């Protein structure tokens, strides 16, 4: 991994680094040597204090062991849940788990792919899987009857997740997993995209390319879940990076993205900026159609990527009609399904463990929409 821009130091927090390291350790064999504190500082662009604290956290959780004079290694007796997950996965045909997947009727092509793929994979592994699209709780209650399940995976998509629905599912399933929605103070497991990592990876990419005037294009935070957090992280980076430059935010109402209306707000935002303050890069957060967005940018007299680099926080498999598409930071449907399978296996092996939120780390896919700004 290449060295980070020193200007980015302290942007990645101790909590962020801990999540990154825990995610990477899951794929490493026991005894694998971990980076030194100095190597972590270089690879992740963090301070000495943050690297030391993150490493101490791994050791406190039994995930890593330090041998004086040799280094730090993945522990041989790390979280038994990981070993349990592997044994569950390998012997899944005999466990025959009963899994109910609930996905809201809200239209979502990617959501459908995840739900269908999860259903197929569970059946291939010998589990009994049922996938149901729900609209209202009363009808769902009648449909489920007194059915009992080992797991229920809920995919609320962009809809409201009623407490009544959670109460109903708790009476029908031993374990509940919510995919794609951060929930607090509720007795359920959560698998969700790591938004902090998404913004950190995207802006880190743009800043390393040399961009100093960045705009955030986002759906109106009052209309959709999660966008206010993305905007808050964007502002945090603006303050913490210390690189200066003009940073701005443009909101597009949710209704405009639903009906494919003209993105006039984008064009107006770009045209209204003074030449020396006009963004050279755009971070996109929301369900924006790439072809329509390209048109809106071109109407302002700018071209991608010569005048404006674009990075979209969305599925890692996103691709434009021209086969090129935008640079993305996100997760493929396959990654989401694999993470859900891993969590189901972990929970089956650790039924009495407290509820956990699993932050799924996205990946950067560089395409033709991002490059260094023009001189």
Strand content: 15-25%
CATH architecture of the largest domain: 3-Layer(aba) Sandwich
Biggest sheet strand line-up = 4-3-5-6-7-13
Computed Rg:
22 Å
CATH superfamily of the largest domain: Response regulator
The percent of residues in helical segments reads 40-55%
Q: What is the number of beta strands?
A: 14
End-to-end gap:
27 Å
Question: Average pLDDT value?
Answer: 81
If you consult CATH, what is the topology of the largest domain? Answer: Rossmann fold
Assign an overall shape. globular
How does the major sheet shape up? 6 strands, parallel
Please, how many domains? 3
State the low-pLDDT regions, or none: 1-10, 79-94, 319-323
> Can you identify the CATH class of the largest domain?
Alpha Beta
Structural overview:
The protein is α/β, with parallel strands linked by helices. It has three domains: 6-78, Orthogonal Bundle (Arc Repressor Mutant, subunit A), CATH 1.10.10.10; 92-193 and 332-362, 3-Layer(aba) Sandwich (Rossmann fold); 195-331, Rossmann fold (3-Layer(aba) Sandwich). The chain is 40% helix and 20% strand. It has 14 helices and 14 strands. It has helices at residues 14-25, 37-44, 48-60, 80-90, 92-95, 109-124, 137-144, 163-170, 195-209, 227-241, 254-258, 264-272, 290-299, 333-349; strands at residues 64-67, 71-74, 98-104, 128-134, 149-155, 173-179, 189-193, 214-219, 247-252, 281-285, 309-313, 327-330, 357-360, 363-365. The strands form three sheets. It has a six-stranded parallel beta sheet, sandwiched between helices. A six-stranded mixed beta sheet has the order 9-8-10-11-12-14, with helices on both faces. A two-stranded antiparallel ribbon has the order 1-2. Helix 2 packs across helix 3 (48-60). The longest helix has 17 residues, at 333-349. Residues 1-10, 79-94 and 319-323 have low confidence and may be disordered.
């Amino acid at each position: 991994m290449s060295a980070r821009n020193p200007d980015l130091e302290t942007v990645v927090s101790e909590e962020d680094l801990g999540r990154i390291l825990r995610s990477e350790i899951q794929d490493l064999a026991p005894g694998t040597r971990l980076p030194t504190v100095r190597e972590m500082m270089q690879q992740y662009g963090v301070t000495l204090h943050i690297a030391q604290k993150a490493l101490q956290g791994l050791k406190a959780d039994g995930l890593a062991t330090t041998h004086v004079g040799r280094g730090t290694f993945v522990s041989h007796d790390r979280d038994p849940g990981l070993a349990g997950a592997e044994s569950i996965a390998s012997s899944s045909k005999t466990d025959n788990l009963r899994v109910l997947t609930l996905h809201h009727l809200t239209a979502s092509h990617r959501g459908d792919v995840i739900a269908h793929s999860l259903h197929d994979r569970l059946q291939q592994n010998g589990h009994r899987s049922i996938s149901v699209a729900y609209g209202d709780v009363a009808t769902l209650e009648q449909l489920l009857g007194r059915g009992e399940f080992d797991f229920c995976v809920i995919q609320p998509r962009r809809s409201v997740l009623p407490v009544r629905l959670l109460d109903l599912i708790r009476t029908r399933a031993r374990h509940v997993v919510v995919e794609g929605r951060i929930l607090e103070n509720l007795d359920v497991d959560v698998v969700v995209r790591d938004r902090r990592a998404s913004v950190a990876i995207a802006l880190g990419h743009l800043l390393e390319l040399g961009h100093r005037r960045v705009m955030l294009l986002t759906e109106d935070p009052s209309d959709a879940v999660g966008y206010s957090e993305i905007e808050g992280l964007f502002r945090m980076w603006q303050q913490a990076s210390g690189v200066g430059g003009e940073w701005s935010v443009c909101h597009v109402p949710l209704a405009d993205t639903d009906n494919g209306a003209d993105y006039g707000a984008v064009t107006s935002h770009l045209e209204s900026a003074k030449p020396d303050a006009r963004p050279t890069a755009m971070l996109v957060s929301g369900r924006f159609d790439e072809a329509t967005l390209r048109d809106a940018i071109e109407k302002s007299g700018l071209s991608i990527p010569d005048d404006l680099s674009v990075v979209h926080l969305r599925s890692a498999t996103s691709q434009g009609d021209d086969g090129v598409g935008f640079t993305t930071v996100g997760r493929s449907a396959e990654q989401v399904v694999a993470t859900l399978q891993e969590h189901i296996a972990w929970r089956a092996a650790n039924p009495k463990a407290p509820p956990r939120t699993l932050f799924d780390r996205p990946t950067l896919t560089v395409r033709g929409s991002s490059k260094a700004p023009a001189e």
